[in-house]
Specification:
- The protein is mainly α.
- It folds into two domains: 90 residues, no CATH class; 146 residues, no CATH class.
- The protein is built from nine helices and five strands, in the order ααβββαββαααααα.
- The strands form two sheets. Strands 1-2-3 form a three-stranded antiparallel beta sheet.
- The termini are far apart.
């Protein structure tokens, strides 16, 4: 008998139930992996990725492991048993390896703690002011990894000040903003320039962060402080579109009139 497997092939195909399970699975796999030793960082990444893929593959196809069987596995699928080789399982897991990668689009849980999220791509419902607040939390989280910062982001993104998050829901905020950043970087390449690769994420101090935020606001207000409240209330996407255009114009001027 042939065991036919069906599974999403990308982040964009995940249902809400599948996304919630994936976040839970990542939390569990990461927690379990800390307890084991690995030969190298590459070995760690490969083992974690395979473990995660197999978990999702089995869950999304309602498969249960009955027992090892010689050099294979005896699996139960909807009450029928199948013998599947380790090689075939590895090949299937490789087809779903994208679950261990950061998404290139924003994906998020529709609701957390009874609150409904803003649009995943922030095309609606998110002001530039709220975007800057989330981005500030994100930048600091990169160096400190303090989950209270993710909760602060969730309070904005789900419009609930006293929001309570479970472990996998903290993780979902991280994946949402990481996917959003990837999407924005592709959409606005002039403003979101690719930074040089670094072995360690640099610490972001409050002064540097504030100066960066202020420079964005000033670029949009053209130095007119009476326009600041209007700029901050703009839809985030509209403000980012304008910032990208300004960055492109700046680059074009520098190419046309290079500094001597």
């Amino acid at each position: 008998m042939t065991l036919d497997l069906v599974f999403p092939t990308s982040w964009s195909e995940l249902t809400q139930q599948q996304l919630a399970y994936l976040m839970k699975a990542i939390s569990v796999v990461n927690r379990d992996s800390i307890r084991h030793s690995y030969r190298s960082r590459e070995d760690y990444s490969a083992q974690v990725a395979a473990h995660l893929a197999i978990r999702c593959l089995f869950r999304w196809n309602n498969i249960r492991v009955v027992s090892p069987y010689a050099n294979a596995w005896l699996l139960d699928h909807d009450g029928r048993e199948y013998i599947v080789s380790s090689g075939d399982l590895a090949a299937a897991a490789d087809m779903i390896s994208w679950v261990s990668q950061i998404p290139d689009i924003p994906v998020r849980l529709d609701t957390i703690d009874g609150a409904t999220a803003v649009s995943a791509d922030i095309e609606e419902d998110l002001s530039f002011d709220d975007y800057l607040a989330c981005e500030a939390c994100w930048q600091v989280w990169q160096s400190e990894q303090n989950d209270s910062l993710l909760r602060d982001m969730a309070a904005i993104l789900y419009r609930k000040e006293d929001i309570t998050l479970k472990d996998f829901e903290y993780l979902s905020i991280f994946y949402w903003w990481a996917g959003l950043k990837n999407m924005l970087s592709a959409r606005y390449p002039n403003f979101f320039k690719v930074a040089p690769a670094q072995s360690e994420i640099p610490h972001v101090d409050e002064l540097t962060l504030r100066r960066s935020m202020d420079s964005q606001i000033r670029a949009l207000t053209k130095g007119d402080i009476t326009k600041e409240s209007t700029i901050l209330s703009l839809p985030a996407i509209r403000a980012l579109t304008e910032l990208d255009a300004l960055a492109r114009e700046y680059d074009e001027l520098n190419r046309k009139y290079p500094a001597k």
